[in-house]
Design brief:
Layout: H1 3-19, E1 25-28, H2 46-53, H3 70-84, E2 101-102, E3 114-121, E4 124-127, H4 133-146, E5 167-168, E6 177-179, E7 185-187, H5 192-205, E8 213-219, H6 222-226, E9 263-264, E10 276-283, E11 286-288, H7 295-308, E12 339-341, E13 347-349, H8 354-367, E14 375-381, H9 383-399, E15 404-406, E16 412-415, E17 427-434, E18 437-439, H10 446-459, E19 490-492, E20 498-500, H11 505-518, E21 526-532, H12 537-550, E22 555-556, H13 559-571, H14 581-591, E23 593-595, E24 598-600, H15 604-619, E25 624-626, H16 627-633, H17 635-640, H18 646-656, E26 661-662, E27 666-668, H19 674-686, E28 691-693, H20 694-700, H21 706-715, E29 719-723, E30 726-729, H22 737-754, E31 757-758, H23 765-770, H24 776-788, E32 792-795, E33 798-801, H25 808-817, E34 821-823, H26 824-835, H27 840-850, E35 852-853, E36 858-860, H28 869-879, E37 884-886, H29 905-914, E38 919-922, E39 933-936, H30 943-953, H31 960-969, H32 981-995
Parallel strand pairs: 1-4
Antiparallel strand pairs: 2-8, 3-4, 3-8, 5-7, 6-7, 9-14, 10-11, 10-14, 12-13, 15-16, 16-21, 17-18, 17-21, 19-20, 22-24, 23-24, 25-27, 26-27, 28-30, 29-30, 31-33, 32-33, 34-36, 35-36, 37-39, 38-39
Length: 996
């Protein structure tokens, strides 16, 4: 073999040997992959190995000039191929690869434009699909499922980000989710940074040190594509489980992040994309070509990509809408709306503004299981379009008269232009301001404005006013007359003079102008606002109809939308729209309700239906209505009428019922703290019933949410808990004043003498007979609430002075500490006679806490026994081969070191409960029949999980009766009818599926 070939082989051998410095095993979560070995498949030359082992330098081979044999010629290209193969050797140490970077899990780590390459967890390399961060999270989670991590199940209720639990019971429609092998769903629609944060939190929760997990990634830079990667122009199959290849896309030649003119779409709700044009669309690391730099084309291109990729979720969009009511994919072209024909024969409507189109893209990606981290859209500001729009708006502003004013209430007025008094014959004045002071108008007539200005001049004692007793401002008669002219309408001023007030608008405005000019008042200091007297009913009806037809999801005010609105109006044949956008805006606002910067049209018919619905509840006696409850009751009808949220409902109801009191939670004829209001409503419907359960009250109070009812019943003293979710009204419980005094005196005496008294020791027989519908616990609750709550503390059945807080368990434990030895019967008698506690497990639990149980009936103090803990644990270790063992399965005590008493299961249980360093006891409840298990302390399984695991690893059929009998016979349960048998069955089935 030529030395050149051997040298190349030796390099490969050295590379593989270096990889063994960090031994890795490979676990494939999705697909098992066979990795090449080192020494077995590639055998190095013996002399190089010998030289390396002796730390000798291998001499550089001389140039081989000899002719090769045919066998050598055949071997040479194989060696070349082996050395130059682009396939990586998986066992290669990733730290030696300069292109790989290790995730640090630092808070400020930026993982945008990266793709994960390798995942190593506790020395095992896990494979994952598509070099995507979402699949890294899936791989880690699947590993935890496979290794049966005991803390994973708690994530069915706990969230890492947001409010949704980490493990979902079912798929969320509006987010990309992955189905796990345990039947749960995992939401993966997050950015790379967020996904790595979740992995960090997941490891912390499941007790996986960050030193045990290593993730390597590459930075996605344009240079990589340009360096000749043969596959750069292809999109690899695997985005979906169909296995079909995705469509070809153009290579990325430069990192768009480096272009200062490009901005990336954030998909934030408040992102403003007006006057922008999309330049690049990159999906799963590959660029999709945009034939036009428009947002509509971007949506079209993305949809075509999904069609070519045969996305399995796309077909459902033939029935489902992403925005509005129409399905996303239309079966045929909409005659009224321009649509684009797709390659699958469906039609796509794209005539939306930029913000709406990006919202649709966001929802489309979520629906089709594409994380937002996998799509990057870059846009430029369309400066030319923005400048044109701003110029048009500027020209419009300059061209319109300076007389247009929109007041703070949204009403549109004209400011009087004294140069054109003829324009106001069909207008009436609404406000007059002179030198910044608003003048009072007695009525909305032009004569009232003239009178107000003249009275202001009189009050100012203006020196030029007196001249007008002889001088005319209009016509030939003096402006100020000493008396009223016959047959001429006039008004008397505060100075006794009269002025004419029968002129029409044009003449009145001219007189006002001349009066101000005469008195040297600048007309710029005179502001008269007026409104049209023309009937606008028809125009408002037409605008309302247009909003209903074109803007069911709300109308947002901006220059572009105004332009589109005018275009739609022209198509609909609407004439008479105000030429100024502010005036048109006032009309539009007047036709709908404002919510979240949009105008929504709620028709009069819809408003009337909602009004009647509210009045119906008030007619039934309700004093208040909670928005949440009303919306829940009528959500379908409300959404059909265009009311899309509780907040929108609140705004509408405030308009419909201005006379009522409104808070953030409810409205009605009452106001105050919600607890007080709900309490009054509960008492309103209580009637003569002795008790009600929460569900019954909720049916009688449909306008109050059930949680509010429950909260009020718990917190308000008028209601006393009787049994599960059932309460009694305190006023209906009969306890005499003499009984109250007697109970208080007895309690005070006992607490002073011994520190406590049991509720069972109080004389309650007559109260019990008189209130026979009270349960035992309900009786104690009532007596405490009505007789003792102000002075004494209650814990269970035990009463003590406030601040001492004694309970049955504390008292029993204190009693046990004082005993050198005692029997179970003695403890039960003490609990029953002294504390009125009949539950025997309380006595057993207290004794187990501080005493050693030496057999079924006897307990002794700790100093009566002597445990060799290490030796005893070593014997138990031999008898517990796995993580747990039923107590009853421990059958031989011959090797257990003596402790002063004969070993038995009770003594073994007591030892493991309090003294062992390696083992603990777990059971459904305290008992005297050795029901339970010995568990290694390192095992984190709950008792239910232990039972499920035991059932799964047995050979019994997974049926209720078989499982109940198995758990009873093996000593896991003291009953053949477990309450949570269904949960145990389900978990056992999952475990069996996992372990095969």
């Amino acid at each position: 073999m030529p030395r050149s070939t051997m040298k190349k082989l030796f390099k490969i051998f050295k590379r593989n040997k270096s990889a063994t410095k960090r031994p890795l095993t490979t676990r494939s979560v999705e697909v098992e992959q066979k990795l090449p070995t080192s020494e077995e498949e590639i055998e190095p030359a013996p002399e190089e190995i010998l030289a390396a082992s002796e730390n000798k330098e291998v001499p550089a081979p001389a140039e081989d000039t000899e002719a090769m044999s045919p066998q050598e010629e055949e071997l040479e290209p194989q060696a070349e191929e082996l050395v130059q193969s682009p396939e990586p050797i998986t066992l290669e140490n990733p730290d030696d690869d300069p292109e790989l970077h290790r995730v640090t899990f630092a808070p400020d780590e930026d993982l945008r434009w990266t793709k994960p390459m390798r995942l190593i967890l506790q020395g095992e390399e896990l494979s994952f699909q598509n070099n995507a961060w979402a699949w890294v999270l899936v791989a880690v989670t699947e590993w935890l499922i496979t290794t049966q991590n005991p803390r994973l199940s708690s994530l069915e209720q706990k969230a890492f980000i947001g409010e949704r639990p980490f493990l979902l019971a079912e798929e969320v429609e509006d987010r990309a989710c992955k189905l796990l092998s345990n039947g749960k769903w995992l939401s993966t629609q997050y950015s790379a940074d967020a996904l790595v944060t979740i992995i960090n939190k997941l490891c912390a929760h499941c007790r996986i040190p960050l030193d045990d997990i290593t993730i390597y990634y590459k930075k996605q830079q344009g240079s990589e594509a340009e360096e000749g990667d043969a596959n750069v122009g292809e999109v690899q199959a695997e985005p979906y489980e169909t296995g079909e290849a995705t469509p070809a896309a153009s290579p990325i030649h430069e990192n768009p992040e480096d272009d200062p003119e490009l901005h990336r779409v954030t998909f934030a709700p408040d992102e403003d994309l007006r006057w922008t044009k999309p330049m690049r669309c990159i999906l799963q690391g590959k660029e999709l070509p945009l034939t036009e730099n428009t947002w509509a084309q971007t949506l079209l291109t993305l949809t075509e990509w999904l069609i070519t990729a045969q996305n399995p979720r796309l077909s459902s969009l033939e029935q489902k809408a992403l925005i509005g009511e129409r399905p996303f994919l239309l079966a045929e072209e909409d005659e009224d709306r321009p649509c684009k024909l797709l390659s699958n024969g469906k039609w796509l409507f794209t005539q939306y503004n930029a913000d709406t189109l990006v919202t649709i893209i966001n929802k489309l990606c979520a629906h089709c299981d594409i994380p937002l981290d996998d799509i990057a859209i870059y846009y430029k500001e369309n400066k030319a379009a923005k400048e044109r729009a701003e110029e048009a708006a500027k020209e419009q502003t300059q061209s319109k008269a300076d007389t247009d004013i929109l007041d703070e209430h949204g009403a549109y007025y004209w400011r009087v232009d004294f140069r054109q008094p003829e324009n106001y014959d069909e207008a009436r004045p609404v406000r007059c301001t002179l030198q910044g002071q608003q003048l009072p108008l007695d009525e909305q007539r032009w004569s009232a404005v003239l009178i107000a200005i003249t009275e202001w001049l009189i009050a100012q004692d203006h020196p030029k006013l007196a001249v007008l007793e002889q001088q005319a401002l209009y016509g030939i008669m003096p402006f100020l007359q000493p008396e009223k002219e016959a047959f001429i309408q006039g008004s008397q001023l505060s100075n006794g003079k009269w002025i004419r007030t029968n002129n029409h608008a044009q003449n009145m405005i001219s007189v006002i102008s001349k009066l101000c000019d005469h008195c040297s008042i600048d007309l710029n200091d005179v502001e008269i606002l007026c409104e049209s007297t023309q009937d606008t009913t028809l125009l408002k009806q037409q605008i309302t109809e247009l909003l209903l037809n074109r803007y069911r999801n709300g109308f947002r005010f901006d220059f572009i939308e105004m332009k589109r609105f005018r275009s739609f109006a022209a198509e609909a044949g609407i004439t008479g729209l105000p030429s100024e956008d502010k005036a048109l805006e006032a009309y539009i606002r007047d036709c709908g309700m404002s919510y979240e910067n949009k105008i929504y049209v709620i028709t009069n018919e819809a408003r009337e239906k909602i009004r009647k619905g509210v009045e119906h509840h008030f007619d039934q006696g309700a004093a208040v209505i909670f928005f949440e409850a009303f919306y829940t009751l009528h959500w379908y009808e409300l959404e059909q009428q265009g009311v899309l949220s509780e907040e929108m409902l609140r705004i509408l109801l405030q308009d419909l019922f201005p006379e009522l009191n409104f808070t953030l939670l409810y409205f009605g004829s009452k106001t105050g703290a919600f607890l007080e209001v709900v309490k009054d409503e509960i008492l309103r419907v209580w009637g003569n019933n002795f008790s009600w359960d929460c569900e019954q009250l909720a049916k009688r109070l449909p306008c109050i949410p059930l949680p509010r009812i429950k909260n009020t019943l718990v917190r308000e003293e008028e209601f006393i808990w009787n049994e599960k979710e059932t309460y009694v009204y305190a006023a209906q419980i009969h306890i005499t004043d003499e009984e109250v005094t007697s109970i208080r005196d007895l309690t005070e005496k006992a607490c002073t003498e011994q520190g406590y008294i049991s509720m069972g020791a109080l004389p309650l027989e007559e109260i019990r007979e008189r209130n026979d519908q009270l349960s035992e616990i309900g009786l104690y609750n009532a007596v405490y609430r009505l007789c003792l709550a102000d002075t004494f503390h209650r814990q269970g059945k035990v009463l003590s002075h406030k601040g001492e807080k004694l309970d049955v368990s504390t008292i029993l434990i204190d009693y046990c500490r004082k005993q050198d030895q005692c029997t179970l019967e003695e403890l039960r008698d003490y609990a029953k006679n002294e504390l009125k506690e009949d539950r025997s497990y309380k006595a057993i639990s207290a004794a187990n806490t501080v005493l050693v149980r030496i057999d079924k009936d006897r307990f002794v103090a700790d100093d009566k026994v002597h445990f060799d803990i290490e030796a005893i644990d070593a014997v138990i270790e031999k008898n517990v081969p796995y993580d747990y063992l039923p107590i009853k399965a421990f059958t031989s005590f011959s090797d257990v070191p003596s402790c002063g008493y004969r070993w038995n299961l009770h003594l073994l249980e007591s030892y493991c409960r309090r003294f062992s360093k390696q083992f603990r006891i777990d059971a459904l409840s305290e008992n005297s029949t050795n029901i339970g298990v010995i568990v290694r302390k390192r095992c984190g399984l709950s008792y239910e999980e232990i039972m499920s695991d035991a059932v799964a690893r047995s050979n019994i059929p997974l049926k209720k009766d078989d499982v109940n009998n198995y758990l009873f016979n093996e000593g896991y349960s003291g009953s053949r009818n477990l309450n949570r048998i269904n949960d145990i069955l389900k978990k056992a089935q999952d475990i069996r599926q996992r372990i095969g």
